[in-house]
Structure formats: C-alpha cells, structure tokens
Amino acid sequence: MIFKHSNNTAIEQDNQTQNRIKMANNLELESKVKNVIDQIRPYLQADGGDISFVELTQENVVNVELQGACGSCPFSRMTLKNGVEEAMRKALPEIKSVEAINL
Description:
This protein is an alpha+beta fold. It has a single domain (8-100), classed as GMP Synthetase, Chain A, domain 3 (2-Layer Sandwich).
C-alpha cells in the first residue's frame, strides 16, 4: 500500500521491507517443512508409499501428494493426519494442517 504525502518514499520502502521479511520467513518455514517430510519419508517408503511436498499456503497449510501404496491405501487419511500432520505440527507448531491434494 502506497500513501501519497511528504513521506511516501519512506512508507513505500517500509512496505517493501515488510514484504521481503514475510517472503524470507515463508521460505525458511518451507525449508523446515521439506526437512520434516524428508524425515517422515523413509517410514512411508518402508510400506511401499511415498510423499512429496506440493506447497505451503499463506495460511500455513502444507499441501502434499501421497504416492505409491499411500495413494490407494484405505488407511492413507489416518496416516496423513495421525502420522504426517502430527509429526509436522510437533516440529513446527505454526503449521495449521497437512492436506493431501490427491485424497
């Protein structure tokens, strides 16, 4: 948001700085999310499944894709919520939920 008055340059620069900080924080959180997924992945692979990161929304919802056996397993929703989401929220309390785009 840009306001027109004598300090408009300062306000514009302040908004740009705030946007850069938000983007840096989001990239840092996304990196941490991917790290948690990498730690969970071997447990899913042991049962013939896999998981891949899709996106982190502005609302701190992690979207993933369950693959392999996890994509068709009747217990995949339970694995997602009781396993993946619980581990994610324990490691990163700012995460609101983990959702599978393919369930």
